[in-house]
Amino acid sequence: MVRFENVSKIYDGQEALSGVSFEAGRGELLFITGASGAGKSTLLRLIYRAINADDGAITVNGAAIGGMKGRHVSGLRRQIGVIFQDFRLLSGKTIYDNVALAMRIRGVAEKALKPQVMETLKMVGLRHKADNFPEALSGGEQQRAVIARAVVAEPLLLLADEPTGNLDPETSTGIMRIFKEINARGATVIIATHNRDLYTGSGRRVLRLASGKIEREDIG
Amino acid sequence: MSHPWASALAGIRKEKWINLLSVLSIGVGLFVLLVALIAVYNLDYFASKLQGRFSMTVYLQDGIPAADLAALRTAIRSDAAVGRVSYISKAEALSDLKKALKDSPYLFEGLDGNPLPASLDIRLRRGFASDDAVSGLASRIKQMRGVADVQYGAGFLDAIESVMSGARTAGLAFLAALLGGTLFICYSTVKILFYRRREEIETLGLLGATPRFIRAPFLIEGSLLGAAGGILASLAGYSIFGVFLARFAGALPVFRYVLTPAYFFLLLPAAGLFIGFSGALIALGRIKS
Ligand SMILES: Nc1ncnc2c1ncn2[C@@H]1O[C@H](COP(=O)(O)OP(=O)(O)OP(=O)(O)O)[C@@H](O)[C@H]1O
Ligand SMILES: [Mg+2]
Predict the structure, then answer these.
(1) Cα gap A120→A149, rounded to integer Å
(2) Most confident of B143-152, B160-169, B175-184, B252-261
(3) Which domains, ranges and CATH numbers included, belong to chain B?
(4) How deeply is A161 buried, as exposed, middle or buried, from its count of CB atoms within 10 A (0-12, 13-18, 19+)?
(5) Nearest-CA distance from A200 to chain B in Å?
(6) How far is B228 from chain A (nearest CA, A)?
(7) pLDDT (tens digit per residue) in B57-89
(8) I need a labelling partner for A123 at 20 to 30 A (CA). Which of A163, B10, B41, B105 fits?
(9) Which residues fall within 8 angstroms of residue B34, CB to CB, at 6 or more apart?
(10) Does the pTM of the predicted model rise above 0.80?
(11) How much is the ipTM here?
């Protein structure tokens, strides 16, 4: 589903990723870990084309995304659900509308989307916050709203950047269960995290990044 | 309500105060434009009215045969510059004069017969009224049969024409400057609005929204703000020109002559909408993914 071949990314002359190669198979759930600044977010941002690689080739769902432009990039992003490390909730919209946005962007009709949005909000425990604006939510609640927005449209590929950074251990476990469920339904899931609890004992592949390179690969 | 409209209204509500300011700026800009437009319109109307007042008098020889008179009128009327031609007989000329001097009837005592000549009064068509055209016409008429003399206010037309064309040029330049200023106010207002929301635009892009999806609510928002500004300017203009001036016309009769065509007021909301829409379009620019 996702394939990196010798990918490098340079920010202002500093190499954030260098010569990274790996493959995440269709329907796989895998972890990326590493110290702060190791390049986890950079790797994910390359997949949804928020940034462009300086070297190497990236393939997503069979398509080389290096030279992609315009509507192809929009199309690529609609196949992907992203849990942004910095949330990116729209402050002018309610939680309901923030989550519904992911469906509207995919052209889902208003009538059809409501039950699915409410269902997803219930799943992350935010049903009672549907009509609130993001600023009225706690950090952890905001994070769960971002998770709901990323999964509501059942994307082929889910990218989670530090999805439990603001959550207590119990809620984290709940969120992890959601990821596994989505994965079980066929989605490929890539989770970038420092949170050891998420992957220990999971039996899934864990790629460890250090200073922009894949240092080693374990089974969690 | 469809998504773009709901989103646009939510955007307006979210930043009420800054949006209100934008509406006010656009409104003030359009109002100033309206005032300038009315000034230029009135100036132009006044100038053409003055030109329309211009007339040329053709004095006829006494005892001109009816056939010659008819031929003369036809010949004069066939000139492209000539509008209306009216005949004033000797008797009419005398009674006009008597009417004008009715306070001094002694002037006419002992007057034998009628010394006044019959004449033709010629009004020119608008746009032909320049001194060159007029003097050419006068010398042509002077040569016609049955004409005793031709009189007109030489220099009159060129004088008003040069004053008016100067004033009109200045007015148009002023109008152009104001239009540019108004457009700039609207553009920068909308641009600032979008600048404040660039993060939202970026996020929409990252979520896979097409440029069209991103633009629609902003274009609606810009159009609504612009139209609201236009309506505001129109209401202000209407209350000042339509109500206020009418009330003061009693005290200061000059105001009675200020013309305010109704379509100017209808034009403003449409102009505001157009400005808001294009301002939004320009401000959004090309959305890169
Ligand atoms: N936009 C940017 N401009 C310049 N440098 C950047 C930019 N984004 C990231 N970097 C640098 O690239 C390196 C990798 O950053 P990245 O965000 O990928 O790390 P990370 O592994 O996600 O860290 P964290 O766990 O703290 O989120 C860091 O050294 C960071 O300073
Ligand atoms: Mg990161």
Answers:
(1) 8
(2) B143-152
(3) 4-49+171-285 (no CATH), 55-152 (3.30.70.3040)
(4) buried
(5) 31
(6) 22
(7) 889 988 888 888 888 888 888 887 788 888 988
(8) B10
(9) B233, B234, B237, B264, B265, B268
(10) no
(11) 0.94
